[in-house]
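Suppose a classmate hands you a notebook page containing two proteins, each written out with its sequence and a corresponding row of C-alpha cells. How would you begin to make sense of it? This section walks through that situation. The first entry is reproduced here exactly as it would appear on such a page.
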Amino acid sequence: MSGVTSEPIAMDATRFQHTPYYCEENVYLLCKTLCENGVAEATCSDLFVVFISNEKKQVPLWHQKASTRADGVVLWDYHVICVQRKKESDSEPLVWDLDSTLPFPSPLASYVTETIQPSFQLFAEYQRFFRIVHAPLFFKHFASDRRHMKEPDGSWTAQPPPYEPIVAQDGILHNLSEYIAMSGADTLSSLDPETVIAAISQKLGVVVSHTQLQDLFTKLP
C-alpha cells in the first residue's frame, strides 16, 4: 500500500562478529557483512557509521546489553552504530546496534526515543553529539591499532578481537581519535542541501546534535 512503511525484519545479532568494547571495529565488520549478504547495497552507499560522544567523553545511552541496571543505561566514553538509509523515500532509516537490547535493527525514530531519550533532562556536559560518516569513506580511511585499549604496561583493558587490526587504505595505522573527537562547537548550524552533500563526501563526515540527527537522514539525496 502506498505510503505505508513495513516493520523491519528482525535479525539475530549474535550472527555478527562482536568483541565487547571494540564497537568501532564491530560496526566496520557489520557494515561489510550487510553489504555482502544483500541486506544493504553492494556498494554500501546506503550505510552510515555514526559515532556518539562528547567533549567530556561521557555519554549516557539506554537499553545497552553491558548495563547492570534495570533501565539498561551505560555511561560510554563513545559508542558506534550503523544507520541504514535506503533509497526508497517511504522507508524509515534503520539503526543497527550490536550492543543494544532493542530490536535489531530498530527504526531510527524509536531508537532515538528509547536509547538517546531526548526528553530526559541532562546536564550540558552529558549531551550527546553524533559524527555521521558515509560507510564507503569509513572503509577507505578508518584505522585502529587498538592503542586506546592498552594500559601503560602494555596489557589490554579488554581482550582484543581475534583478527588483525584495521589499517586504512593509505597505510595509516590509527586515527580513531579523530572520529570520536566532537563537541557542541563542531555541530552544523543548519542542514542546507550543500551541508548534506558534504556529509557524504568528507572523510570525517559531519557532527550533529540529537535534535538534528533524524532531520539529516531525511535530507540525504
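The notebook's second entry, a different protein, reads as follows.
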Amino acid sequence: MASSKGAAAGKPTGSIVAEMEKMGVEQLKALKEQADLEVNLLQDSLNNIRTATARLEIASIALHDLSLRAQGQKMLVPLTASLYVPGTLEDADKVLVDIGTGYFVEKTMVEGKDYCERKINLLKSNFDQLIELASKKKNVADEAGVVLQAKLKQLSPMT
C-alpha cells in the first residue's frame, strides 16, 4: 500500500478529495486501480471468513449432536466431504480438534465446543473489521473515480 493511500484512508472524505484534486490524471488512475484491487482482495478475505465461520458453526452443531449420542452407538464417520465409513462411538467426551495445517488436538467435548465458539467470535470480529476497511477503501475508489471523471471532463474541451 502506498503511503498516500494509507494516509488518505484514515482521513475524512473532504480532505481525501482535496488531496485527490491535487493529483494528476495518471496518479488518480493508479490510485483508483489500487483501491479497486484492495477492495477485491478484501472481498475475497470476507468470503473466506464467511466460509470458515460457517464450517466452525457446523462443527459446533456436530459436537452438540455428538454429545447427545450414547456410548457404543453405531454411526457413519466422515473421512472426507464425500467418504464416510461405519464406526462405533467409544467415548463421546473426547474429540479431536483440527487446529490447522494438519494438526489435531484431543480435547474434551466442553473444550472442543469452547474452541469452536472462540474461533467463531474471533472470525466475526475480524469480519467486522474487514467490512469497515473495505467500506473505506470503496469510498476512496469511488471518490478517485469521481475526481478522475471531473479532471477528464475538464481536459476534454482542450484536446
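A careful reader of the second entry would note: The chain has four helices and four strands.
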